[in-house]
TrEMBL record, chain A:
Gene3D superfamilies: 2.30.30.90. Keywords: Iron. Residues 1-77 form the Ferrous iron transporter FeoA-like domain. It comes from the Bacteria. This is Ferrous iron transport protein A. SMART domains: FeoA. Transmembrane segments: none annotated. Pfam families: FeoA (PF04023). The lineage of its organism: Bacteria, Pseudomonadati, Pseudomonadota, Gammaproteobacteria, Lysobacterales.
UniProtKB/TrEMBL annotation, chain B:
The keyword Transmembrane applies. Keywords: Membrane, Transmembrane, Transmembrane helix. Coiled coil: none annotated. PROSITE patterns: G_FEOB (PS51711). This is Ferrous iron transport protein B. The keyword Transmembrane helix applies. InterPro entries: Fe2_transport_prot_B_C, FeoB_GTPase, G_FEOB_dom, Gate_dom, GTP-bd, P-loop_NTPase. It comes from Dyella mobilis.
């Protein structure tokens, strides 16, 4: 599933980040920020309008990602 | 050990506490400038180590990695490698990492290490790490990284002692430089994971405090309510703490002016000092408290970690008008003054979002417009109660603020639709942990903002005030002239010339004239009107409001208020836009769209007001 489809409060493990275009700078940045295979992520909160952006916790860090950005990350939900 | 000076570069991820560490090391002895041609800030400071050696410290911009294309990251890399023209390679790199966030920060440490230069790793926020139960095996980490590792607590007195001792000692041997390519970069995360497994024990993945606070601060309903209350309290504080101090400064200068009038003989010198410099300086210096109070809150909220939360809450809304959540902080600063606001847009990575924010920032009602508003509202708008609880004067002021914000939304929306580039804009924003703001960091930030304002004051504004006085005093009226002296001055002729342009907006020649210095700095419009009417003999010190009501209509006053809500920003703002965007084209766009908007809005206001009032 995609990170953008994760229910609130749920945890998942990152599988990969997909480029939506050649040399996708946003995908590259996501990888630099630690969205790489095997990392645990959790959806902490979402914005007030259209549940956008999403607040994702990875390790000790919290990142605000827009839905379109989070959709680049494929994850596997874990308990 | 050498006794010459040692150049040290501080690098690290954003939010690693690098700036607090820099402040701790150098105190107020900092020099802030820009790298030539770009908008990346160059901060340098120095201190003398216990050995007597002088250490020069360069604070480089916060960076997540070297492979991204932002100018910050490029410059950081060039400076570290000694490839930046005019900047000698540092003798030692101090890489700062947040000990509570090593998963993210160690990756950058590894990137820095691969440059093949001498590096010391400062594990910052060690106190918080211990409190959260994070155990770091420092000797083991040091051995595996092959770098000297020291602990720091940037926010605590003496918290940099271990770092100072280390950098004052022998410069460590550099690791061999490594090739930098995509394949080896992809391996960095695996290395970080291996390092963490071997050296760090973490109890839980999150801080309970952040969780608890974010549950409220980011709640879809309560979060927005909290934000509204915080903003309301900030603006309330600006008026209740800032205003009395401002009035005190104004009164002080009036007092000085009155005494100068007693000591000095009648004549041009007395006129210059009293009507020109004292009145002008008093009005303009008067904003300093309001600006400082607003910045005090902005800095405190930013340091505490709350402002990025506000940006999170507002992102979607701002996106719909062509901005980004990241625009929130610069736009909030613009309520004090557009100059620091525009400089604050550096934190917006997307160049398109950044340009839009720069273009709309001057529409936020800056504190320089307040004296103009206060004067006109006080003179023309009656103190009616509306619906029993509101005051009509307050409502008009509020409406002017709202007009600026709505104008900014409209302009953002138009820019968004005019732009052909439809590719995605990134948010990707880190929300740092909440922390208690440190008085020293807030104080240094306030000092920098205050200094920018005062520098502007002493240069442009003072010169203009004097010039205004000069052109409204000379040439003196010919012998036997009957009209007021100012009608014969240069100002009189200039004002009457400009009146042709501004008559459709209901401006008389005095107002038209005051728009010239207002373009240099808006607040001087009041001083200019005061000077013009004082020299013209129409006003005493406190009678300016009276002089205005007897000289022009309510329709003209409303039109002038609207003009100031949208009018082309002051010269210094244009200069900052030029510096920040490196383009005269953007300056021209900014000036002309604001002139067009202000002219049409004022025209409509004047014609409607004449019709209905």
């Amino acid at each position: 599933m995609r990170l953008s489809d994760l229910p609130k409060g749920a945890s998942a493990v990152v599988e990969r980040v997909e480029d939506v275009q050649a040399n996708d700078p946003i995908a590259q940045r996501l990888r630099d920020l630690g969205f790489v295979e095997g990392e645990r992520v959790r959806l902490v909160a979402s914005g007030p309008i259209g549940a956008d952006p999403l607040l994702i916790q990875i390790g000790y860090t919290r990142f605000a990602l827009r839905r379109s950005e989070a959709a680049r990350v494929t994850v596997r939900e874990v308990a | 050990m050498s006794t010459g000076s040692l150049r040290i570069a501080l690098v690290g991820n954003p939010n690693c506490g690098k700036t607090a560490l820099f402040n701790q090391l150098t105190g107020g002895r900092q020099k802030v400038a820009n790298y030539a041609g770009v908008t990346v800030e160059r901060k340098e400071g120095r201190f003398t180590a216990p050995s007597g050696r002088v250490l020069q410290i360069l604070d480089l911009p916060g960076t997540y990695s070297f492979d991204a294309t932002s100018p910050d990251e490029q410059i950081t890399r060039d400076v570290l490698e000694g490839n930046y023209p005019g900047e000698a390679a540092p003798d030692l790199i101090v890489c700062v990492a947040d000990a509570t966030n090593l998963r993210l920060h160690l990756r950058f440490v590894l990137e820095v290490k691969r440059l093949g230069r001498p590096v010391v790793l400062a594990l910052n926020m060690m106190d918080t790490a211990r409190r959260r139960g994070i155990e770091i095996d420092i000797p083991q980490l040091q051995q595996r990284l092959g770098l000297p590792v020291v602990e720091t607590v940037a926010v605590k007195r003496g918290g940099a002692r271990a770092l100072i001792e280390r950098v004052d000692g022998e410069v460590p041997v550099a690791a061999p430089a490594m090739p930098d390519d995509a394949v080896s970069r992809a391996g960095l995360h695996a290395q970080v994971r291996a390092l963490l497994d071997a050296t760090v024990r973490m109890p839980r993945a999150t801080a309970a405090l952040d969780d608890a606070l974010d549950r409220w601060a980011l709640h879809p309903v309560f979060g927005l309510m909290i934000l509204a209350v915080v903003m309301f309290l900030v603006f309330q504080a600006v008026y209740s703490f800032g205003k009395p101090m401002s009035d005190l400064i104004g009164d002080g200068f009036d007092w000085i002016g009155a005494h100068l009038a007693i000591w000095l003989p009648q004549g041009p010198l007395q006129g210059l000092l009293k009507d020109g410099i004292c009145t002008g300086l008093g009005t303009v210096l008067g904003f300093l408290p309001e600006i400082l109070v607003l910045f005090f809150f902005i800095l405190t909220l930013e340091e505490s970690g709350y402002l990025p939360r506000a940006a999170f809450l507002l992102d979607r809304m701002m996106l719909s008008v062509g901005l980004t959540g990241r625009s929130f902080i610069p736009l909030l600063s613009s309520f004090a003054c557009a100059i620091p606001g525009i400089m604050g847009t550096r934190s917006i990575q997307d160049p398109r979002d950044r340009l839009t924010t720069i273009l709309v920032a001057p529409l936020m009602t800056c504190s320089a417009r307040l004296p103009v508003y206060a004067l006109l509202i006080g003179a023309f708008i009656p103190m009616h109660r509306v619906w029993g609880i509101f005051n009509l004067q307050g409502l008009v002021l509020f409406a002017l603020y709202v007009a600026g914000i709505l104008g900014a939304m409209l302009v953002g929306w138009v820019i968004k639709h005019l732009r052909h580039d439809r590719s995605e804009h990134a948010l990707l924003m880190e929300l740092p942990s909440y922390r208690v703001p440190q008085p020293r960091d807030v104080a240094i930030g306030l000092w920098e903002r205050g200094a920018i304002f005062l520098k502007r004051l002493t240069g442009v504004i003072l010169a203009l005030t004097v010039l205004m006085w000069f052109i409204s005093t000379f040439p003196s009226p010919p012998a036997g002239a009957t009209g007021p002296a100012i009608d014969y001055s240069i100002a009189g002729y200039l004002g009457r010339g400009l009146q042709y342009v501004f008559a459709p907006l209901g401006f008389n020649w005095q107002i038209s004239l005051s728009l010239i210095p207002a373009f240099a700095a808006r607040e001087t419009a009041v001083a200019a009107l005061a000077t013009v009417y004082a020299v013209g003999g129409d006003a005493t010190t406190n009678g300016l409001a009276h002089a205005l009501t007897s000289n022009f209509s309510l329709a003209s006053a409303l039109s002038l208020l609207v003009w100031f809500a949208f009018a082309p920003q002051c010269m210094s703002t244009l200069a900052v836009i030029r510096r920040e965007t490196n383009s005269w084209r953007n300056v021209a766009i900014s000036f002309s769209y604001m002139f067009a908007v202000a002219y049409s809005a004022s025209f409509i206001t004047y014609q409607l007001a004449r019709w209905f009032l």
